[in-house]
């Protein structure tokens, strides 16, 4: 019997010693704890890289939610120059039909909202923590801290700028703009904020951009590659904002400053396509996808490339309106990127090159995303000068500097006043086709949408053939999730 | 196993003993009883009868009495004085076989058990032809709801016991196999190896599982060897698998063209402002705006495109149909199901053993889906000596499942693809006469409906699912799961100090999953990237170690037993996956030279530690009390709030043991019982729910490491609590009617809630403990022995459960009012159930223009609701509570009829009341989406002003008509003929002649008939009443033979 006790006691001891204190402490391996990530400068840098990546991941399993370029595509599909003529698998059709942003339960509508506020949240976390890092005060790190902070501020400003244009009624130049904007968050929080006025939102945007530009200017750090934001990109965004708010002098200065150091791509190389940043001197900001980070069917090129096996190649081609196609002269390299494919005219191959993107067998999905190019800055400059009045020659030159590179036969405009402005705006439509500006431009200039007579398949646009200027359909509805979870939220007119 | 066999042959001869031999038979049929326990009273000497009922025992001269005992029979004491041969006839214990009930960390008997548990025995389980025991529980255990059982071979099902326990944490019960929580896959257990399944439903039965017992516990006990019998059992079953639920009724080509034309014509009028005449001409015409062109250029008739549908919207009466390929029929097959099971068992009073091997091979009702599984199990237990008992069981399985995506709206899901494919789209390309076009080798040319492969049919681009043809790609693609599992249960029990027992067990479950997802390099989705292959390997392991000390003693009429224990549990999940594209050779392997599209790995861990105590007391088998306490620490919660306490109290009163009841002859058994206690739930789909986290998975920017905010912190996150009250009565009357009635109240508080936060704050949900939800209900079981003669027996068992689920407390919001949380088609708010539908309320169709109407609240200037009106604007429509998916009553009816060797049983399951949101039907009720199939119900669409109908006008892209609303809610009531089994056991004379102890043949049918509101609808898809394009359940007709040696 004594033996039994010995066994019993030894087993009991084994049990008691078997469990140490850490037995119930478990941490994930696919995530990092806040305290581990945010305590250092490099940790904040890691979070910033995560923000960059957010601009081109696939959200959920939907093939129309791939970050910034998906929203750019929405922006153009809401206009009249960029469209498709078949339903295909149905991606984006709801946007083209003006149904998606008018449907409060739409997941795609919620994606746009969540996408930008997600960027804001992460930017706010960086801004709230970067000054508390253990190594942030080390001399060698000071420029890095400034650079990270400046990028976070720019992302926040950019996000608010995009959101306010989608989810609020337009900014009225010279108006009080006291109508409902969007909620502003400048610190991480779990509590929903009410909608600020449009004026307040732009005040915040400008404050953030000015602070970012100051930090970029004083920082000696440089960006790792053009997926990061630098001084030029911040100035470019500032130029866009100034154009929207009618501060044309600022828009001009900022556009000129922003393109400093970037030269327009040569005419001969234009047909190379806007899918590879390497070798393209005009590329200011974008995303550089590698094989394992491309999102195949759920990608910009899936929806835009008429040859490689995505949705566009299945017939969901993206077509140019006759308005811009006919406007461009035959010698315009841009015009040459619109081709007749399978009997269908004006199919855009701007991004994949006018020779057609040839699949090398290994990198068909792996293309770069363009967020900002120098060409846009010339257009802002020309428009801003023209709108300031009295310096038409300068505006003509700015326009010429761009268009001449696209079309060697282009003759410098001799127009002045409003006709000049209209020429600049037509060139803007031609130049920025597919880049994601048309809807914002319609709102910015308080224009009507009129798709009639531009080559659309009218049966596909549902009820969205035309809307008068200032129509409620130009305002996105607030997603239901936000309405339900944020008691302070107010819906736009249904 | 060998040592167990050796033990049987061991026997000790001792001096000064008397040998007594004899035969034990049953009073009922006079047949020999094997395995009867023959023990010498007052000693530990014992023996068992053999197969022939004979025994032999050597007794010291001091022994005066032999006790013969056998389960189901009354024990008998026989005086041995001066006898050497004693034959005994045992009388069956008709009053009540005191069934052993498997409970937490031990067993109890039915009479002494104060809680609520249902036990399903092997003979019932094996009737259902399934790879997963979960499916076999449907309708046979009261209070148990089973859903999600698809027809995918090798699939399992989901179970809820007595309502819904949680909102966002799991509401699934805890599975325990042979004493330890089981983390493997239920379908890795051969149902033939299962001796019984206990469903623990109340606090006293499941509280000892503490943190994990809140949603009930399902205890699976595998077969053990039976002392005295050495048996070999072989069973072979062959079956044919077919579709149990027919397809929805859908339009044929003629009506399809006509209605598509109509929808298109209406769009041209209503959305594009054309006159009806112009619109009709356009729709009938042969331009790119004509209906044939809109349908992708497909014309399955022998007339020109512009002659197909006339200006009146009618199909050309002279048109002859050239082809109408039935995709579903071509994708379907009659599957073969084979199941072979061999087991060996035996034992003696020193130990027993059980071993089995089994093979299952099942083909699905859709081609290229199948499942095969090999399982093996060995178990043995041994009384090593006076104070030590040991037992061990090892089991393993190896299975392979071949299938495809069987849920969601991916076009590679044949149940979406086949159901939604317009009837005019061919599988193969056709010539002008409708004959299939052949390629150079004489093979049929497929039609991919677009794309750029060799099977692109010029001029034809299918608007629905272009560039896909599952008849072509499913055989080339691969979606497979290899699963190898291993389970071990090892225990040792030490008896000491007379009344003490100490038991240690070590248990492990290991599962290796290996998934392959391969999209072929020739056609469809991965054609452009020359094939895509993903390999995922997952290794899941869990360890449980238990130490349990028990003490039990009887003092006269007082019987006391106490138990104390400790449990450690560690769960680890490892995952690695990689994807490559760009194969120049046909392979599913990740070969060098192909493009790396990504690779990732991670490990998750979860641990739990618990201490538990239980006490049972009864007084003269009349009054029973039991109580338990357990404390658990979980790694899911922050250290300060990690430990939770769980307890239970129960009591029962066997009134039938009282003299005043004993005198009532027709009452055989009457027991009142009540229990109350609190269990926990920590099972959120997140092992680190309290921590503030930044995801680093898939967040690198190029080659720079990246992270993104992914979860908010909540250090106070803790257990969800489940208070469980059970009051019941058990009875047996007239020696032929048994029953139970139980009333239960389950209240979950501190709900683990994934609370929606405004999306604009970044992270849109956070884990919080908020809210209270309750389930109240009644369970009823009744068994009637209608006939009970020697040869003819007829028994009916019926069970019914009814419960109501209600959220009683929601968190208070900033406005001081209880919050309301909307998730999908439900809204969580006080006073409503978790599955109350919250939708637009369908108000029918506007007679004037055929528009869809929805109800909308009217409000006064202050925003107060003053009434209701209808609106055509789905965004303006108000949302209302419009019903629940929870049935009013559900259960099953079993009929068992036997006559001599013939046995017949039928199981009917039913669920009455409750609604289902039939989104499958909704998809088939679109307003004219080109290429998508239509339900036949669309024929009732509005056509002319004044039409009274419930189906709005057809109009391509008219989305207001298809908004989610109460229109798609359908009564989910069903009655299902779940199983019929007919068997014949040959008379012993025949089986003896064949050198067998038994020979049985049987035939059975599973899912023979389903009666429900709508053809095509599967009302058992989910608890929440939602539908998906899932693998349609299977009907299995099988027959088999069972040989016992």
Oligomer: heterodimer
Q: Segments of chain B where pLDDT lies below 50 for 5+ residues?
A: 1-15
| Proportion of residues in helical segments of chain A | 40-55%
User: If you average the pLDDT of chain A, what whole number results?
Assistant: 92
Roughly how much helix do the residues of chain B carry, as a percent range?
under 10%
Order of helical and strand elements of chain A: HEHHHEHHHHHHEHEHHEEEHHHHEEH
Low-confidence stretches of chain A: 356-363
Query: What is the number of beta strands of chain B?
Result: 51
Proportion of residues in extended strands of chain B: over 45%
Biggest β-sheet of chain A, characterized?
2 strands, antiparallel
Give the end-to-end Cα distance of chain A, rounded to a whole number of Å.
85 Å
Beta-strand residue fraction of chain A:
5-15%
Notes on the protein architecture:
The complex is a heterodimer of chains A (494) and B (1045). Chain A has 494 residues and is mostly helical. Chain A is 44% helix and 6% strand. Chain A is built from 18 helices and nine strands. In chain A, helix 14 (374-388) runs antiparallel to helix 15 (392-406) and helix 15 (392-406) packs parallel to helix 16. The longest helix of chain A is centred in the N-terminal third of the chain and has 26 residues, at 142-167. Chain A is globular, with a radius of gyration of 25 Å. The model of chain A is unreliable at 356-363 (pLDDT under 50). Chain B is built from 13 helices and 51 strands. In chain B, 48% of the residues are buried. The interface between A and B is large, with 105 and 104 residues.
